Amino acid sequence: CEGFIGEEPIGENGFGYDPIFMIDDDTSMACLTDEEKNRISHRAKALEKLVAELSKK
Q1: Where do transmembrane segments lie in this chain (predicted)?
Q2: Spacing of C-alpha 54 from chain mean position
Q3: What is the pLDDT of residues 3-48, one digit of tens each?
Q4: What is the pLDDT of residue 40?
Q5: Rounded Cα gap, residues 1 and 14, in angstroms
Q6: 12, 18 Cβ separation under 8 angstroms
Q7: What 8-state DSSP symbol labels residue 8?
Q8: What is the sign, positive or negative, of the torsion defined by CA atoms of 2, 7, 14, 33?
Q9: Pairing of strands 27-28, 4-5
Q10: Rg (CA), the chain
């Protein structure tokens, strides 16, 4: 997902850089629920594709 590094940490959810990785002017990744993060996460998208490929076999 696109975003920018914020000046102050915001939010309580997540880990690592989530509190300072801003997805808009007042929302960091740490403000999102796990479900919301998984909808935009490159890792979640990659896992979905892997599961789909493995289920074909």
Answers
A1: none
A2: 24
A3: 999 999 999 998 999 999 999 999 999 999 999 998 988 889 999 9
A4: 87
A5: 15
A6: no
A7: S
A8: negative
A9: unpaired
A10: 14
pLDDT of residue 57: 77
Tokens of 32: 């999102």
Tell me the C-alpha distance between 21 and 3, whole Å.
Answer: 7
Assess contact for 30 and 16: CB atoms under 8 A. Answer: no
For the record, the structure tokens of 17 come out as 């850089």
Cα atoms in the Cβ-side hemisphere of radius 13 Å centred on 15: 0
Q: Which pLDDT score, from 0 to 100, does residue 14 have?
A: 87
Q: What is the domain count for the chain?
A: 1
Degrees, nearest 5: CA angle 12-10-22: 115
